[in-house]
Design goal:
The protein is 43% helix and 21% strand. The chain has a single domain, classed as Vaccinia Virus protein VP39 (Rossmann fold, 3-Layer(aba) Sandwich). The chain has eleven helices and seven strands. Strands 3-2-1-4-5-7-6 form a seven-stranded mixed beta sheet. The chain is globular and about 55 Å long. The chain has 257 residues and is an alpha/beta fold. The mean pLDDT is 95. The longest helix has 15 residues.
Length: 257
Amino acid sequence: MSEDRTPTAPEFDEWYAAMEHAPVKDEIQQRHLGLPPRLLSTSLLTWDGLLELVAALRLAPGDTLVDLACGRGGYGLEVADRTGAALVGVDYSSVAVRQAQEHAARLGRSADFRVGDLTGTGLPDGVARGAMCVDAIQFAVPPEAAYAELRRILAPGGRVALTCWEAVERGDESLPARVRQVDLLRGLTAAGFVDVEVADRPEWRRAERAMWEEAAALDGQQLAGDPALQSFHDEGVQVLPTFDRSRRVLATATAPL
């Protein structure tokens, strides 16, 4: 998923299928991000970051939470469990949706996972009191359509929380175009959100660096026969040379009343 283009749905399906049985990759990721084994993720949000999302969304029991680009469902399920919200997870990949459904069943959790796009969830207007998108808004084409979709599905007063990376210098061509184009403040403001805040989270970034350093150091014997671990290693090798040229951010905003 490190190419400078938006992967197709079949490519996402293949990526998720490879991770269905990837205990070594999951253990490395969970250990560095401080995640419990029950939280299956394909994103890089730390446990402390997840707790920040819980606080930022301000959900009450019975509220609807939409987890956009939900992946295997781990983060959204945890937020819903902690807040009592009803979870709707949306992902581009049908394989990810199936894995999220199965993961929720193993945990004994109730959730609605469905196939949809960052720019077109298929959900009704104003259906949610909270919306989250962890480390995936950069895949939206065009970017402004994803912010508009978040605004559309949120009820007045609803909250959105996004995590992503932004370029330190937006013209830095060493970074993928999809990272250079991320501007959460501008995107959320243009979509009509209020109380928009975008904050650096360097402590999340430090955890990521340690994780990628371990992934990049894996040798051929460790990688043999494990396509998910191989992909993890390859991404670590690719991201480390330009690691300090992007910053880790959390964005929060409110849908106007």
